[in-house]
Amino acid sequence: MKIKLLQLIVMLSKYAFIGLFLQALTFSLLLASEINAQENKSVREVYIDIQLQDADIFETFKSIESQTNFKFNYEKKDLKSTNRISINGRKQSVADVLMEISREANLKFRQVNNNINVNKLTDNSINEPKIEIIIDDIEISGRVTDQDNGDGLPGVNVIVKGTTLGTVTDIDGKYSLNAPEDGILVFSSVGYISEEITIGSQSVINLAMSVDITSLEEIVVVGYGTVERRDVTGAVGSIKSVDITRSNPVQTAAALQGQIAGVNINKLSNNPGEGYSIDIRGLGNFSGQSEPLVVIDGVIGADMNILNPNDIETIDVLKDASSTAIYGSRGANGVIIITTKRGKSGVPKISYSGYVGVKEMAHMPTFQTAQEFAHHVFELWPQETGKTLPSNRQPTSSETALVESGNSTDWVDLVTEPALQMSHNIGLTGGTEKTTFDFSLGYLDEGGNTIGTGFKRYSVKAGLESQVHQKVKVGITSYYAFSKADLGSLETLRSALRARPTGTVYTKDLQPNDAAGDKDWNGYSLFMGINDNQVINPVVEAQPENYQRQNRTSAFIANAYIDYTPIKGLSFRSAISTALIDEQEGEFRGQYTKDRKTTAPPRASLSTGKMSNYTWDNTITYKLSTQNHGLTITGLASIFEQRNQTTNTAAQDLPYNSLWYHLGDGTVTDWSTNLVEGALISYMGRINYSFMDKYLITLTGRTDGASQLSEGNKWQFFPSVAVAWRLGDEEFIKNTNLFSDLKLRASYGEVGNASNIPPYSTQSTITQSQYEFGGSPAYGYFINNLANKDLVWERSKELNIGLNIGLLENRISAEIEVYNRTTVDLILGDKLPNSTGYTDVVANVGEIQNRGVELMLNTVNFDKNDFRWTTMISFTKNNNEVTKLAGGVTEDIGNNRFVGYPVNALYFYEKDGIWQLDEADEAEGYGYLPGQGKFVDQNNDGKITDADDRVIVGDESPNFLLGMRNQVNFKNFDFSFFIYTRQGVQWRSSYLTGTFGDTGNNRYNHDASLDYWTTTNPSNTYWGFNGAGPASSKNSFSVVKADFVRISDITLGYTIPRATLDRMGFSNFRIYAQANNPFVFTKTPGFNPEYNGNVYTDGVSFATYLLGLNVSF
Amino acid sequence: MKIYKKWQVIATTILLLSTIGCNDLLEENAVSLQTAENYYITAQGFEDLVKATYPLLRDLTRERYLVLQGTDLFSDGDWASAADRLGSGFNEYNSNLGPTTAEVESLWNLLYQEINRCNTVVTRAEGVEGMDETLKAVRIAEAKVLRALAFFYAVQQWGDIPMPLEETTTANKEVTRVPSAQVYAQIIADLEAAEGILPVEATDYGRVTKGAAQFLLARVYLTRGWNFNNSLGGSAADFNKALEYADKIIAVYPLAENYSDLFPARNENPLLETNNPSTQNDRNDEIVFAVQYSENIVTSPYGNDYHHPFGGGTDVPGEVARTSYYNRYLGKFIMTPAVYRLYDSDIDTRYNHNFLGQIYALIDVPGFVPADGLTPIDISAGDVVVQFRPWDNPATTPAERGMDVGGDLPYSVINADEYQNIPSTNYHGNNAQPLTWKWFEPNIEYGDGFGTTDFILFRSAEAYLIAAEAIVKGATGGDLGTADVYYNRVVDRALGANAGADPLQAADPADVSSMDAVSYRATSGNINIDMILNERARELVGEYNRWYDLKRTEKLIERAKAWNPYTADSELAPMHYLRPIPQQELDLASNDVPQNDGY
User: Fold this and answer.
1) Of A319, A292, A283, the residue nearest A901 (C-alpha)
2) Chain CA centroid to CA A996, Å
3) Strand (E) positions, A203-345?
4) At what angle do helices B180-197 and B210-226 cross, to 10 degrees?
5) Which residue has the higher pLDDT, B12 or A170?
């Protein structure tokens, strides 16, 4: 343990150093932009030390001017004859000095701001005041807006610096006040960075305020309540609507990528509308995914992908166990709390945001052209293998003709096209002081680059909140979204990627002898003039009339609450949240598809799923605060129930193309329905206590009972404690004048996870088998799964230490987290020796540790003269290690689990180059041929065997993630770009293990960039035509690094100036251009270094270029 | 204070309400899923459990690699390249056939899945209520026969094996290998007990019957009698038992009149096809036990696939892609050159049933160029485009050869010594070979499966050959007499009208250049194991047994090296009589499990 702590400290120092370095980079810029404050003060308020002996009046004035900002105005000739002055005094006000002068020199003074006008005292004026002070107030007005969306900001404090003069902006963000010329206005509002503006000669001052993501007063949602960021004791990351929508993500999850440290988001495929995988603080199990709990407006376990990102106000990510403990059994993988937008009181405000763009195929690997393919297969293959090409692999005359013509068929190009992507969102909010409403409509259309694919989403959101009684508040929000995903044909890309580039597209272009054996579909040659009927013309397969898959999803989320406050400080809230998701998946395969062999009548299938759940939370909150003590007690009783109902129908021999809407006319091949139900009951208590606002403690306990565990194991208690010390508020820190914020936090908690346990896994359920006796159906029932009655809760125990630092009025702010999480009694599918008759069981399989460091850094690098440059950096470093396995074993090879290694270790033969020709004899001893893979014989027994020669050659866990956004605002222009990188990931590339990387395949197309071995190219990097060698499925040649650096988005925007807007009647009007994923830097072969998917069905990688508009009035 | 009380009342009420009935909520009630505990205790449930022991036979009989490949009869294609030593591990017996070979894993997994299902029947029987005890005993006996069959396959493949006899109920990861002799003893005990209980005719056609148990006993005893490596606990008495049980089968299951009666009827010319096997009765008195299929796609979703994995192919002019005319030929199991030379093509009806002699054009091919430089010819639908001559009737003169090689005929003629080893011409590729026509089923959906006829696992023709083998190995007292009598019954059925004639096979089947022939009629003087293995090859080629036959008789090395072009110079050695235990099993076991020697 000591050693581990030491490692932790070393690790922390390492990354703290990086953080400091980054800060140092920006520090000098910050100093340069310090403002030299100017202000008007009365001569009565300004004190000087002055000693003059018989000085003339001019010397006297100079002396005063040298010590103050005042400037004397006079006619020199008027004062020539004045008496000489002697003043001897310490610390006296300028007014006193002037009075003395007045007496001695018969002068009178009139101060107008910093100017002091000097006049001779005349007899007439002898009784007038000797000093007149006029600090001129001029009327200033203007409008304060949100820099990001241009909306007027109500309630912003506008104060003349150094005075109590001030006002507050109205509902539209407008204000007016009288202020001294040359004064300084200070604008401040919760959640925004305060700004100071010198009035100068301006009478209209408009200001766009930017969100202060480190604002201490910012409200953070922590589950069953909110706290101010200054009072947060756990590790919580947040992003706001502006950061969520900035890069116009189709799915909400994408918005989190690189923007919150500790959260690892990866694409699942390039298909339109596709979701993302999310893990928080590393993988907590062996399944490759540890999805966090998602809570949308109180709906627990909701699906993030149904949301329109534009409807989201904030996303709060609870990372450490003390934060997630209030979600008890469901918090082990972290919690993402999504709060949608709420109405605001004031005159109704309409806003529109939208964009239109084009999505283009980008970052594609290179495939062989017809000529390269012909060289590879028709020439090299026979030469290198010493075999004759099988007759059905030899070039047909059509193929030969194409190769000789110098042309090549780019099948991928034929089945892809640039696609349109657009989004339109309209919002309306408003209300009275007591009742507010919000309403929004959203439309998204993401075209797919592959023919027949696309994603559309329509969403409606409405909310109403009302203080119906002095003590009672009620509210309801509802959200409905409908989405339609056209998934195209499963075969289109698969065929296009595999089909030989020597194929012929159109029947008319076939050579006559090939035309005879081929088939025609609307002018397209079905078998492409290739003597291999495995692949049919991808263009034909791609046509929606031949092959369609479509998913339709309707999702409804509603949340209603009643809040009752019987006495001050005590509130009772009862909230019901429900989610209904209705999904259907249809698939139609017509005759002209590979599946239907171009001869069989169509087949189709329809699957539907209905998921419904509700959560009923009853919460009591009691708040007490005195001068030194703050106490909040929260109690909760909660019930959650969910049901999933599915049906599947499939039929073949359909008489006509009725998609999946007329299955009864065919022969039904599958007809099944299913129901899965689950429930969770919870009781939670939380105490937040603060002393002198500096010492904070949070205690949480939650007890959960889950239906899917067996009797006796159902209930579990999850406790946590967190403390925080606001060091920055201690005098000794304050006195250093270094920190604007400094807070140290520490927490420990235990959370559970029963979500990995499928319902009914503690029971042996049975499944129907199909057979027949003498032609009569004989359905049987066999046991589907081995029941495990001993399953207990999976639990995570986590220690978290966090530090918040703010420097220079929070112009540099950083949040650093160090954590150590151990997940014990991991619940997972555990493979069993097959001699048990089962392949796997759901079991408690072991222990995993995740340790890491997270850093969030926000800096205002430059802020002067309409020019503002800010940077956000998020850095995530996680070390993942299996620490224990069930049964006390140190390795479970069959399940790919190894103590001391990351969960997703790659256990393969270690590559050691390629057997070369001059090593043929040695190679033969191992059973290999020259050109095949050479592997390290780990135990030197002269054989390469699975039993002894596999080792861990890498793992899929990233070393670190880094996201950086730079934003520059200059006058009305804004510019930002986001860089994201993931380093240290390795995986066994499914791109290379497919046909692209199979050098020896003589049937399908290959990657054109592989440096594969031939007798004349003694490559040591990739095997040649005779394959990787025996047991090639265990070879590590396809294990590749999947590091990448990506410019995720670049945006340039322009906001129309205020004055013009006013004339046009808008409160905001911003246009922008954006490029999404324009640059990806990677050496990873394949389509997308972000994920290792199924290359045949995952779509093609792309970049998007769009123009957008934000308007509100 | 009053208001405080009111609040208390409301809050408490709601909180109480919210937790009422909580514990009920946490009870799992799987509405759409039945649990084993609830279902198998009823007679209906138990019947359904037993029914679930049958379907895996379909998966099992599709798992052919370890049964056919690497033997004397099946090999990889492209015989000309065999010398390059780049065949599959199954035929090369090199490190490509190892503990990680997928087919080794999948056969193991299937067998133990089946064993566990049968064990579930045995274990759960006691808890079944309200079921007729006699019927229950029959059902248990069915499961025990199927379990014995699975153990029998496993013990032959791997030797010492895990032998679970009870349903698996805990996730125990310890794997213990039990000595082969003990496995055989268990198999025999189970089969003999079942044989006494099972009816001659089952309640449903296709279930395990007394005959099935007896047939399996004959095979098991025969195998134990050979006593591989002295490890099976066998003795000479086992051959007598084998003969005794074979006689019982022969007495009850008469041979079909024609060999072809056992298989789907079809026309050699697909364009003249009128047969529709889904209406053909595939029951035959010769069949003792068969894996059931039908045209019902719900109960036979994948269908019998024996028509597709074997050699041949119709990559010829006038063919239409992806149609059921010749259906699909994958060319994964290529017969060795010797197989074709085991038959007297003139009089042995099995030759013409098993192999397709000519391929017809299905569409017109106008302007076809038979060979470069020749005048184009017009091929019409229904014309022969390729003809395969049997080994004993080669085309020798240009008048008998095709235009592609300078002959006169407007179609290509391929002699037996050219199968799989002929320069490609405009008519065919270099791996041309007659289609294996034994299981061809016309008018079924194009693809890898979809056959509707039953796949025969046990039939009495084999019982004759078991009896003959047992007698050769010393058994006495056969009902029909000497070994040659049993043997010739099978040959004569195949000869049909020519029964009694001397059929001729190649003297050295492996030597494709030789026309020397010998009779394969047996006499009491000449009958030996090799003759029986040859006759098994003729009669049972492609059925689910060759590797087991060669292992039992310990003829694998000799015969496979002699006949299989890919195995000829391979590393095939005595270690290969046992397969490697799947690496996956060793990887998953929590204890150290010994691997078979050499792997």
Assistant:
1) A283
2) 32
3) 207-209, 219-221, 226-228, 236-240, 263-267, 276-280, 293-296, 299-300, 312-318, 335-340
4) 150
5) A170
Residue carrying structure tokens 């005993």 = B137
**C-alpha distance from residue A422 to each of A248, A357, A482, A565 (Å):** 10, 6, 16, 45
Asked if A679's CB is within 8 angstroms of B25's CB, the reply is yes
Q: pLDDT digit string (tens) for A44-57?
A: 878 888 888 888 88
Task: Say how many C-beta atoms besides its own lie within 10 A of residue A190's C-beta.
Answer: 14
Mean pLDDT value of segment B82-102 = 86
User: CA of A224: how far to CAs of A574, A704, B313, in Å?
Assistant: 11, 16, 69
Residue A33 contacts by C-beta under 8 Å, 6 or more apart in sequence?
A862, A863, A864
Q: Which of A1039-1050 are b and which e, b meaning 16 or more Cβ less than 10 Å from the residue's Cβ?
A: bbbbbbebbbbb
Residue with tokens 């256990």, as numbered in its chain: A907
Q: Specify the pairing of strand A115-120 against strand A71-73.
A: parallel
Instruction: Give the residue-averaged pLDDT of A332-336.
Output: 88
Which one of A385, A603, A834, A949 makes the best mutation probe of the B interface by having the most chain B beta carbons within 10 Å? A834
| Encoded amino acid at B394, one letter | P
Q: Please give the DSSP secondary-structure letter assigned to residue A728.
A: G
8-state DSSP, B69: B
- Does the pTM of the predicted model rise above 0.80? no
Q: What is the mean pLDDT of residues A102-126?
A: 78
| ipTM given for this complex | 0.92
Of the candidates A103, A100, A130, A104, the residue with the CA atom closest to the CA atom of residue A117? A130
Residue A312 CA to residue A297 CA, distance in Å, equals 10
Rounded Cα–Cα distance for residues A689 and A629 (Å): 7
Between CA B341 and CA B349, with CA B343 as vertex, the angle to 5 degrees is 150
Chain mean pLDDT for chain A: 86
pLDDT value at position A202? 77
Q: What is the mean pLDDT of chain B?
A: 92
Which one of B10, B18, B365, B593 would you mutate to disrupt binding with A, by most A Cβ within 10 Å of its Cβ? B18
Query: CA angle A387-A390-A396, nearest 5°?
Result: 120
Q: Which two tokens stand for residue A93?
A: 């006000």
Structure tokens at B208: 């395990």
Are residues B321 and A533, on separate chains, in Cβ contact within 8 Å? yes
220-279 of B, contacting A, C-beta below 8 A: none
Handedness of CA A913, A917, A918, A920 (dihedral sign): positive
Task: Report the alpha-carbon distance of residue B299 to residue B394 in Å, rounded.
Answer: 46
Give the chain A residue whose CA is nearest to the CA of B31: A675
The reply to whether residue B300 touches residue A770, judged by beta carbons under 8 angstroms, is yes
Question: Closest Cα of chain B to A650: distance in Å?
Answer: 11
d(CA A874, CA A280): 14
pLDDT, tens digit, 9 for 90 and up, residues A673-712: 999 999 989 999 999 999 988 999 999 999 998 888 888 8
How far is it, in rounded angstroms, from Cα A1033 to Cα B100? Answer: 9
Q: What are phi and psi of A799, to 5 degrees?
A: -110, 135
User: Is A245 in contact with A920 (CB distance < 8 Å)?
Assistant: no
pLDDT (mean) for A581-609: 92
Helix axes B133-158, B43-51, angle to 10 degrees: 30
Quick one: average pLDDT of A913-942? 90
Chains A–B, number of C-beta pairs less than 8 Å apart: 317
The number of beta carbons lying within 10 Å of the beta carbon of residue A13 is: 10
Distance CA A1018, CA A987 (A): 26
Which residues numbered 842-861 in A keep a CB inside 8 Å of some CB on B? 843
| β-bridge mates for residue A439, sequence order | A428, A462
